[in-house]
Amino acid sequence: MSESACHNGGQTCWSCPAVEFKGHVDFRACGQAAFRKAAQGQLVVECKRRPEIGYFDPTSITFEQCTEWQETECGYLLKGMKVLILGMDGYLGWPLALKLAKLGCKVYGIDNMLRRKLVEERGAQSVVPIETMEDRIKAANEHLDVEIDFREIDLMDRDALFGYIREIGPESIVQFAEIPSAPYSMADVDKAVDTIQNNVVGTLGLLFGVRDHAPDASIIKLGTMGEYGSPLTGRPLFEGLFPGDAVLQYQGQEWSLGGELTPRDPVSFYHVSKVQGTFSVYEACKYWWLRSYDVMQGVIYGNHSAELAASPALATRLDIDEWWGTVVNRFVAQAVIGMPLTIYGSGNQLRGYITLKDAMQCITRLIAAPPEPGQYDVVNQVTDVFSVKQIAMTVAKIGAEFGLDPEVQRIENPRVEAEEHPYEVIHDKLSDRFGFSSESSLEDEVRAMFATLTQPAMVERIREQENKLFPRTKWSGEEGELKVLETWKPSMEAGDDQAEAA
Amino acid sequence: MKKIQKRWPNGSDSWDTSRTPERADHQRPLSSDINHVATGNNRRQGKGMPQLFLLGIDGLPRWMWQQFADSGIMPHSRQLLDSGTLVPMKSAMPEVSSAAWASIVTGQDSGGHNVYGFTDLIDGTYTLGFTSSRTFRAKPFWAAEDAGPSLIMNVPQTYPAQPLDGMLVSGFVALDLDKAVYPAEQLPWLKERGYAVDADMSLVEKGKSEFVAELRRVMQVRCDALHHHWDREDWRQMMFVLTGTDRLNHYLWEDYEDTSSPHHQAFLDYYHEVDQQIGRILERLDDDTTIAAVSDHGFAAQKISVNLNCLLSQHGYLQLKASERPSYIDMLPETVAFAMDPGRIYLHRKGRHPGGTVTDETAEQLMQQLTTFFLNTQVDGRPIATAVHRGADIYRGPFAHRAPDLVVMAAEDVALSGRMNTDDLIEPTAINGKHTYEESSFFVRGHNVGAIPADMKVEHVLDVILPQRAALQKAA
């Protein structure tokens, strides 16, 4: 990769989805061609967008030099890049669609609207009202002047999915179409099987579709930091693959671990599905020269971005119930209605976190800087590490700015997890290689959420699902209420803990 | 010599001695001889003879052809060579197939047709482009206004196939059969027959036997295609190039030279099979047709492949910024010279290259310095060059300004490479045979041919085989 002012300006056409691999040629033997990407020799490609270049060596043109790549706030981006978002109706899918469309991408999306259905079946609802997809797209057109193409397609309906892929020829595919809840996957056998089936089988089917119909598209696969677990040894959580100088020592001998997948220790059947997805994508890149970034995302929170702010009609969903709400979002909602912020066990569990806004920037940067054919890489999409207790204290503190005085409550831990553990997350790639720089913080995002959720209509929507906020799903499968261990008011504590990056 | 299974489906499995060189009536084949499966029984009926049949045999040295003809390995060739004139020919400079074939079919050197090698930098950029029919800027003989219907098959440097009066199937480097065939309506037949745009090189890794089997398969299907399409129309001129010979020479030259090699016989057998295909063509032609047979370069042993960019880099002429995959875009302004396959040297000139710094004033001294450098450099104890030519002295024509500044002619046993994506001064390779500038083959037989120049070169081929056309072109 050559140097460039912009993080991906030095990437070459070999990473560009618009070039078509034509063969490996060994000109020393008069141009005998091998049509496999694995072969030795000189790479030969043709550009689908600039056929006038003819056949050329893809490593001899950079994004910075190519007229089809234009500089944006997220690095060089292929003009009118065709991005297919699977799960576009979701918490992440919709804001990503808006951001990409605003940057000039041609955005396509599918969703089976399952999330809306499952949340409704739970008796819960997005605390921020969201429009139908039809109205969302109209609003995007009206307020952001962008066109988005959407089809209601189930990821599991491979005929429809493959047909759509064939039709649009995506240059990047974002796989968000997964059931994203650990407690849901632990609630009962049907939900566990649904999670595994949709996430594992859906992703596997997708990979075949990409192989056959869009082999040059980059796959941005959403994984989770929970795939790694939290090793009690304190082993750093590398970004998916061991660094080149990692060594295994055993019985007086040493073996290099460089480039191998790091151990996975998932913490629910949902996380198991994500681990399986990781292996499927890894293998597909190996077998078929597909290319992918596997995104180990930390716990996500917030509901703000520049595009979402353009109109309330563009809002993304914000769930707060036990199954579908992530911890920060749920704590803010609990604080708004005077419900104690429920911490599981000691509350010292450490996790990586990222705001929705930052996550959207990260994903966009990954789309903008595609991997090379056959390249599988992993990023840890995390900006901070907090303990659950630190999160609760921060929410409580900022709640006070809104006239709230929430309690914090430790309850019996419904999960099977270590409550006291080291947690060293390596998260350098996004900033070092993709130019990511965080634009939001826990405090700012929590403050912004309080500003939204303390509005009377929102308070009412939280109250309507009040009984869905307190956790009930036990990993053990046992029935019964979780015991309350301790309740206190942070405002009563002098010099209390403040949430800080660990 | 090992006896080879006959491919003529006349019931005999032994070599037909009636096709030996002694046979006097080779120009008048018996009708029974030509009733083979691929072409059908009635193909001669109502069909006129082509005025010209130009056969290419890629990489066949003149001396080897004569030797194989004389020794009985290539009996049809013996018959052919006895009926006309075979002379040594000089290749393009440097002796790269793409440039040589372009010269053969246009009658011009690289300055006239714009093909200097398989690769070239796109003007004003550091983008490494691959030469193709799109960058090939002179008209081949079949594109002349009065050329008449032509059947052109497997001629290198014609990909993607361009429209013509007739049919064309591109030769190497042809990346996709769909774009290698004109008119496209002929594509399904070729696909159905498993026509290969190139042999699968990866089979070399599996073993030489597998590789040779692949070359035989590819030759057979191409020859069958030739005869099938020959039968379809009255062609005024035909050109067909056998390219497996070059592949064989590259990878089995050591086996040819080493008579104890387990693959030595396979090398000879392949040429015997080539000769059978030559016989199959000759049987269909008579005195009315001018028959020419050419190769694009000679061949010799290769003991070492030297990467000139590594050499230039080691001595400071080429300076690259750190890169995982070095390419021409990584050249720093401090670079004064760089190489392209096989021995083309370009000064990093101001005004020609985006970051070039070499001016016309400093160019002369630099070229002298580089010439001395290449002539005096040894790698692994071997000199690497026998001569260094100036591009300005070699090339003529509208594209001469795109020529390399210097052309390094490789020394014996040495092949030169200008790849950028390697750090190996001595490149590891399975290739053990290399092209030579001298001793390609030129054969002609016909009533209406021009004089063969004493110093025959690839760009003279059309002057000899199509003298009127060449004269008209020169007059124009």
Characterization of the model:
The complex is a heterodimer of chains A (502) and B (476). Chain A has 502 residues and is of the alpha/beta class. Chain A has 13 helices and 21 strands. In chain A, the strands form 6 sheets. In chain A, strands 9-8-7-10-11-14-18 form a 7-stranded parallel β-sheet, sandwiched between helices. A 4-stranded antiparallel β-sheet of chain A has the order 2-1-3-4, with no helix packed on it. In chain A, a hairpin with a 7-residue loop joins strand 3 (42-47) and strand 4. The radius of gyration of chain A is 23 Å and the shape is globular. The two termini of chain A are 33 Å apart. By secondary structure, chain B is α/β, with parallel strands linked by helices. Chain B has 2 domains: 50-299 and 436-475, Alkaline Phosphatase, subunit A (3-Layer(aba) Sandwich); 304-430, Gyrase A, domain 2 (2-Layer Sandwich), CATH 3.30.1360. Chain B is globular, with a radius of gyration of 23 Å. Chain B starts with 51 loop residues before the first strand and ends with a helix. Classes of the chains: A alpha/beta (502), B alpha/beta (476). At the A-B interface, strand 1, strand 2, strand 3 and strand 4 of A face strand 4 and helix 8 of B.
State the share of residues found in helices of chain A, binned by percent. 25-40%
Instruction: Tell me which CATH architecture of the largest domain in chain B applies here.
Output: 3-Layer(aba) Sandwich
**Assigned CATH architecture of the largest domain in chain A:** 3-Layer(aba) Sandwich
Characterize the biggest β-sheet of chain B.
Answer: 8 strands, mixed
- Sheet with most strands of chain A: 7 strands, parallel
Strand content of chain B: 15-25%
Q: Could you list the spans of chain A in which at least 5 consecutive residues all have pLDDT below 50?
A: 494-502
Query: What count of structural domains of chain B?
Result: 2
Chain-averaged pLDDT of chain B: 89
- Could you give the distance between the termini of chain B? 52 Å
Total helices of chain B: the number is 14
Through-space gap between termini of chain A: 33 Å
Shape category of chain B: globular
Please tally the helical runs of chain A, counting DSSP H or I stretches of 4 or more residues. 13
| Number of domain modules of chain A | 2
Helical content of chain B (DSSP H or I, runs of 4+): 25-40%
